[in-house]
Design brief:
This protein has a five-stranded mixed beta sheet. Strands 9-12-10-11 form a four-stranded antiparallel beta sheet, covered by helices on one side. By secondary structure, the protein is α+β, with helices and mostly antiparallel strands. The protein is built from 14 helices and twelve strands. Among the domains are: 56 residues, 5' to 3' exonuclease, C-terminal subdomain (DNA polymerase, domain 1), CATH 1.10.150; 143 residues, 2-Layer Sandwich (Dna Ligase, domain 1), CATH 3.30.1490.100. 35% of the residues are buried.
Length: 396
């Protein structure tokens, strides 16, 4: 029996939440995003604004240049998180096989439900709208791959300036026919640069990829050639993993309003990011043994470097010391930095092999736990390190 997989995506999620809080915005040309002064970007645009070419990730200044009448609304991530949790609870009441992949989208495996997949999708759409007021669109297929592409395709067909609230169903056995005429960039694993190279060689559609010979597909994609051809034919057996499974990494990064080239400030920000990562690891009861840093310079050139630790850790100071070493080794001193990031990979449950004399490590853990308790009770700003008190940082 064919699987029944649904991809649900909330329509212009941030904007839809803002319309609930301020009904006067409904139908208006508006966007959620940062200030036009500096490096603010659009995080979500209403469908009315999209008709004027306003898109997410567009610099706010550019969006206003394109659409001078655009209404700007500041982000309110606390409310977005609350509504996201409500929606995911509705989905999990339908099936336990829910994989949340972002704040506004998720996959569901409803293979065990007896109703036709289109009927299940319609019921979900109505329930989400009734219980939260949020519109959503759904793609339905036999795999995650095709369900996601179907949803993206269906939403793009609606150009009314209103939420699509679209349901797109791809029947079993029709996957390859559905994918064949679509642009190559619609396929998972084909980014903008790869798509451009393929188009330059005359490969413009997914169907053309599916029809490539063994030699050609290998020449284009190397060892990934066969998996790419399977995707191009709509073959994807990857499971829906409830709650996304265990995360493969935890990271935090910061884009600066102004480029930073002062070593002291950059190291203070690096410490702050390390503390954020450590806190998230501890809350998830995880630790890692590979620390990563990301440096993006003013010209957008980006470098990622990593180092392995002797043992798993989720202690802020351990993360920072490793991140600091990487940064000082690889940063080009004096070169302006646009973005800085810290991450931890190779995650596992925390464990520490303490010797009888290893008091220092135990003290660090006890201190970290005490700080976590204080921040949990009184907020993140209740206690700060002395070397960060004069630092003016952006919120992460």
């Amino acid at each position: 029996m064919a699987r029944k997989i649904i991809h649900l995506d909330l329509d212009a999620f941030f904007c839809s939440v803002e319309e609930l809080h301020d009904p006067s915005l409904k139908g208006k040309i508006f966007a959620v995003g940062g200030s036009p002064n500096g490096r603010g970007v659009i995080t979500s645009a209403s469908y009315a604004a999209r008709l004027y070419g306003v898109r997410s990730a567009m610099p706010t200044r550019a969006a206003l240049d394109r659409c001078p009448d655009l209404i700007l609304v500041r982000n309110d991530f606390r409310h977005y998180s609350e509504y996201s949790k409500k929606v995911m609870a509705i989905l999990r009441n339908t099936t336990p096989l829910v994989e949340q992949v972002s704040v506004d989208e998720a996959f569901l495996d409803v293979s065990d439900l007896p109703q036709p997949i289109g009927s299940i999708a319609l019921d979900l759409q109505k329930k989400v709208l009734l219980e939260t007021g949020l519109p959503c669109s759904l793609g339905c297929a036999t795999s995650r791959l095709v369900a996601k592409i179907a949803n993206d395709y269906g939403k793009k067909q609606v150009k009314s300036g209103r939420s699509p609230q679209k349901i797109t169903v791809i029947e079993p056995g029709k996957e390859e026919d559905f994918l064949a005429p679509l642009d190559v960039q619609a396929l998972w694993g084909v980014g903008p640069k790869t798509a451009d190279r393929l188009r330059q060689r005359g490969l413009t559609t997914i169907g053309m990829l599916a029809a490539l010979s063994d030699a050609d597909i290998k020449a284009y994609f190397g060892r990934h050639g066969e998996s790419m051809r399977r995707r191009a034919r709509g073959i994807d057996n990857s499971p829906v993993c409830p709650d996304g499974g265990d995360p493969k990494s935890v990271s935090n990064e910061m884009t600066f309003l102004e480029d930073q080239d002062d070593e002291t400030n950059l190291l203070m920000i690096l410490r702050h990011l390390s503390e954020k990562v450590g806190s998230r690891l501890r809350k998830a009861d995880l630790a890692g043994s590979v620390v990563q840093i990301k440096i993006r310079y003013a010209d957008f050139s980006t470098y990622t470097r990593q180092a392995s630790l002797k043992e798993c850790t989720n202690i802020d100071q351990d993360l920072y010391e490793a991140a600091q070493t990487l940064f000082l080794k690889h940063w080009i001193a004096g070169r302006a930095v646009r973005l800085l990031g810290v991450g931890m990979t190779n995650l596992a449950k925390p464990h520490r092999q303490l010797s009888f004399w290893d008091a220092e490590g135990s003290k660090r853990e006890e201190l970290t736990k005490a700080l976590d308790d204080l921040r949990e009770r009184f907020g993140d700003d209740i206690i700060k390190r002395a070397d960060t008190l004069n630092t003016n940082k952006n919120d992460i």
